[in-house]
Amino acid sequence: MARKPAEELEMGPLGPGHAPANDPMKGIRGVMAGTLVLEGIVMLLGLTVVGRVDSGLGPVWLQFGYVLAVAVLMFAAAFMQKAPAADKINWGLQVLALIGVFANLVIGVMALIFIGVWWYIYHLRKVVQERMRRGLLPSQHV
């Protein structure tokens, strides 16, 4: 399906509307922060697996320290979602979590699941931005 040129932008039946009363991006940033906190908790719970099952590369204390450091970085990044570099930080943390597969396979599997969650969050953000641009959000016509 071909995209329409920019001058043929489809607007909603009520027109472009005004700026939304409540910023929808604020809610999406909240979802992102909550996801980072949840992912940090899951990484900390994964420490029990790392401590009991020695299947990674290197000594257990190094594996344990790596997973702990990534979890702490996730908690810290949850408070930085308003920063301009938040997207890069979020994806960088996902790469660090995926590298955790060398600490333990379970950590890598959890990272893959959360990478899917992050892809979906960014997809939803793109959809909301497009709907805002076209004037299709209900709060733009109140």
Automatic annotation (TrEMBL):
Identify the keywords attached in UniProt to this record, alphabetized: Membrane, Transmembrane, Transmembrane helix
User: Which segments cross the bilayer?
Assistant: 30-49, 61-79, 91-121
Q: What name is this protein filed under?
A: Putative membrane protein
Q: Which organism is it from?
A: Corynebacterium urealyticum (strain ATCC 43042 / DSM 7109)
